[in-house]
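Hi L.,

You mentioned the student needs an example of a multi-chain input paired with its predicted structure. This one should do, with 807 residues in total across all chains.
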Amino acid sequence: MLVKLTLNELYKILAKPRSYIGFLAITTIIMLIEFALYVDGKNYIGFIFQALEQTVIIQGEILNGSLVCFIILQTLIIQMPLLVALVTGDLISGEMASGTIRLLATRPVSRGQILWSKILAGGIYVFALLFWLGLLALGGGLLFFGTGDLTVLKTDELVILRESDVIWRFISAFGVAFISLLLVASFSLMLSCFTDNSIGPIIMAMSVIVLFTIIGTMEVPLFDKIKPFLFTTHMVIWRNLFDNPVPKEMVVKSIAVLLGHIGLFLSIAHYKFTKTDIQN
Amino acid sequence: MRNLLIVCFMILLLPAIGQSPSGLLQEVNVKFSTVKTYSAGLNLEFDIPGVKVDPIKGDVFYKAPKKFRIKTKGIIFLPKQNPYEAILLLSDSNSYVAVKMADETVSNVKTTVINVLPKKQADFIVGKFWIDPVNKLVLKSEITTQANGTLVTNYAYGAMAKNALPDKMELTFDVAKFKVPKAVAVDINSKTKAGDTKSKGTGNVKFTFTNYVVNKNIDDKVFTE
Amino acid sequence: MAQPIVKIDNVYKQYGTFKAVDGISLTIDEGDIYGFLGPNGAGKSTTLRMLLSLIKPTAGSIEIMGKSLNNSRNKILAETGSIIEKPDFYLYLTAKQNLWLLSKMYSQNIGTKRIQEVIQLVGLSGRENDKVKTYSHGMKQRLGLAQALLHNPKLIILDEPTTGLDPQGIIELRELILKLKNEGKTVVLSSHILSEIQLIADSMVIINNGKAVAQGKVNSLLGDDDVVVYVELADTEKFNTEIGQSAFANSLNAVENNVAALKLAKQEIPHLVAWLNEKGIAFYALDYKKRLEDYFLKITHK
Ligand SMILES: Nc1ncnc2c1ncn2[C@@H]1O[C@H](COP(=O)(O)OP(=O)(O)O)[C@@H](O)[C@H]1O
Ligand SMILES: [Mg+2]
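Structure written out for the whole complex:
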């Protein structure tokens, strides 16, 4: 039954125009970045390395598919939570607002099943979005820029990752990004259970993420203490997969924190949704 | 007239062979000049300030007198100065004046140290060679050029010593520490901010050669593509 | 004796200190058309929502088809169809897509044939491939019926199903409800309009302020034994002096604004008229209402 319900939810997601905003945005941004880098990437790279190249010869193509994909990931990952929340924040509250929740809640399926079908459908949506991003970024990158070593510009150093060492990092990074976005999905879904306002949870989820991100990037000693407690701090852990060597303990810890949050949010959502009176 | 001049030169140089600094340099040069081309497998290790990069394997091609090319599938860092600058320099014995310095020990070998100064205005300012007088091999060189600074090279020899081809070369040179423009940096805060704020540093590249193939024709395309 | 299909026992629903449903008990027999009558805000929808487990009672128990709603919710809902308040649908989908999605929520296989069947039954044929966005309220109400009947349920709960329907639609709905009854189904419907219930229901409950104020068979509740007679008097003074000694002394309810109200059986009205004439008490008009109707009008017009 859960499978049928999940397919139902996916059907609804697919029927809603807003579900395509994410795909459209991703496609547009990626095209733009790839086009810009194709046209002007050499100058861009030249500018970054001009100081270093005064004393060293850098041989090999820095501007390649790996770098393009990394730049895209880096740029888009900020928007992704917003695109995800746009769909997942509406899954429960949207049905509450439109009254269609009654159509579901008066059928011979438990509230828990209804919720979980939405969670699964949300997860699949997130996966599809990320997959599309990966496909365009990596696919487009490799197609137009070729393969090669990945140059990662950290604040304090330049990390060059050998071609053979890159793919697993991208795959893991997408995996971690997926978990991060699942967190966003479950967070907005949880908020969605507490209101019958359709856009409230979307705005709320976005605001929290933006706020946490700002706190996380501000260089204020007071904030440094709370940073480890913000889930957004752990959502950017995918970047650390491009450090060499990968700070494994840190990554594993962050993944655990993310999964813990997902568990917490979904438990709250489950509790709330199965107990709530449907008044709409 | 010309012949006379040559004879004069010969006479002038004669006593130097075997003992004089330029004579020693010549002997070294002669040994290497038997090599017209070579190719070899290469492993490169880097130690560049502000840059973290794994070693990489590749191939190296050389064609006398000065065609030189390293091929790898990835990104590599090389000193601006051609690593063969030292050899090239020695090959034209007319262009410099050699001055013998106090002996020094390099890698447990007693070496003759020879300073080389250009006769005329040239790109290189000063060269310094540490030479194993027994095996006629350069164990260390230090070339300072106007355009590309100083390059210190340490050489270690193995089976190809007969051709003066090293198994290992370690190049040390000055680099401006890499600074990522703030606008494009990725904030990977995996460790506490390093206190290293030196803007200058020393770069180091290690070459390890394997499978030398000597004097087998190499297509010129290899060097241009 | 008919089997009870719904048993509500002393059910409460409290919001803060406000009791939306204040201890209702009732029994609905299988095969009946059962009416919930009450003014707006009486607690009808709240009660019906509790039957569908949309909301949880604060106290009391509900048994449907012999099973406790708490323990056998899914089994009960598999045999129940409903429209609660507005008929809401996925506006961005067509009627058929809406029904198709809902059909997937049952363990039995409800094919497109059945979907077409209910579309036909509620008279939406020809519009089933239009987005619900384009539907009028009446059409949505029909679609609401279609989704309620989709899985051929035993118990059908319709909350104010006539709102938004045109007179023709109301007649058709009534016919449909009777047809369902003939198929052996139990239909529970609510309304704030007495005639709607009276015309069609076998049994009913009148709810006011969350309480069941009267319940039973419609023909006994709204029978002729129990009417209120209004006499608009020309000579109130005389009436007041005479009535005390008359046979109608105990029937008098009140005299207000020169209108006397008396509780009587319908067949006693001629006697009352005869007495008024005999005593020479002049009056302008005499009218009667069934007592429950009278009561209901009072609570709805307050
Ligand atoms: N969630 C709620 N919170 C507070 N009061 C409510 C809530 N839901 C319904 N009510 C009140 O309960 C009463 C009964 O409502 P309802 O059952 O919808 O009446 P009906 O359907 O008979 O018109 C109304 O006074 C309504 O205002
Ligand atoms: Mg109501």
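You could point out the following to them. The pocket of adenosine-5'-diphosphate (ligand 1) is lined by residues A 279; C 15, 18, 20, 38, 40-46 (CB under 6 Å). Chain C has eleven helices and 14 strands.

Best wishes,
N.
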